[in-house]
Amino acid sequence: MSSISERLQAVEGRIAKALASRKSEIEQPGPICLIAVSKNHAAEVVEEALEAGLTVFGENRVQEALPKIEHIGVKAKWHLIGHLQTNKAKQIVGKVALIHSVDSERLLQQIEQEAAKQGISQEILLQVNVSGEESKFGMDPDAVWELSRQAAQWPHVRIKGLMTIAPLMEDAESVRPVFQEAYSLFAALREAALPQCEWQWLSMGMSNDFEVAIQEGANMVRVGTALFGARQYAPKEEG
Ligand SMILES: *Cc1c(COP(=O)(O)O)cnc(C)c1O
């Protein structure tokens, strides 16, 4: 069995190669932010990953994230990457540096309310579903435009970019059009320069498809299995 630090080296090599083969028309400032997806792995595994040099960890369920964040503390930076139910927003605001999965106005409002109460500014990404029905979560591009235009309504929320989850496919090549579409939406939003929005991050790509995502413009990738090995049990999507 290989160690996290060996796997990290391999992942970093793959990232560098993908970045080097990115098309020149893609304007995306480097470097790539690697999120180590630690869901379904114990806090001890996160400790080992920290020692290997990983710094940002992604969790997909609030109930699992909170005790781990408590245990590890500020040594690590935490992101919530999984679906967030409106009624759980209160518990996670202020505990994570970035929430990747904001997909409704109601959820935005809830985050705003809690962030205002805490007197903080919560960074978020809007989750877009460019591939249609195949994925349960995420907004269509029109809804993303609409919320982005209204960003000033949520002064304690900072929209930092877009996140998308490609449908699971045997062959990573077949999801390339999904990543292309997400990037072109991202580029158009950035071009529009709406007030209160900073289009810094395009979060897309997981263990099986992050190279294609990077080639198509991702600058934040969420990698679990390729760093930590297979998870013990299937993760729940609902956060
Ligand atoms: C689990 C998960 C990942 C990582 O998946 P791997 O295939 O293990 O790399 C990335 N993003 C989200 C939203 C996830 O839930």
Fill in the keyword field for this structure.
239 residues, binds pyridoxal-5'-phosphate, 9 helices, alpha/beta, 38% helix, 8 strands
What is the ordering of alpha helices and beta strands? HEHEHEHEHEHEHEHEH
Task: Write down how many β-strands occur, each being a DSSP E stretch of 2 or more residues.
Answer: 8
Order of strands in the sheet with the most strands?
Answer: 7-6-5-4-3-2-1-8
Low-confidence stretches: none
Total number of helices: 9
For the termini, the CA-CA separation is 31 Å
User: Which compounds are bound in this model?
Assistant: pyridoxal-5'-phosphate
What is the share of helical residues?
Answer: 25-40%
**Biggest β-sheet: count, sense, barrel?**
8 strands, parallel
Provide the β-strand percentage band.
15-25%
State the secondary-structure class: alpha/beta
Characterization of this structure:
The chain has 239 residues and is an alpha/beta fold. The chain has nine helices and eight strands. The protein has helices at 4-20, 43-52, 62-72, 89-92, 105-118, 141-149, 176-192, 210-215, 225-228, and strands at residues 33-37, 56-59, 77-80, 98-102, 122-127, 157-163, 197-203, 220-223. It has an eight-stranded parallel sheet with strand order 7-6-5-4-3-2-1-8. Strand 3, helix 4 and strand 4 (98-102) form a beta-alpha-beta unit. It is globular. The relative contact order is 0.18. The model has no long low-confidence stretch (mean pLDDT 93). The protein binds pyridoxal-5'-phosphate (PLP). Pyridoxal-5'-phosphate (PLP) binds next to strand 8 and helix 9.
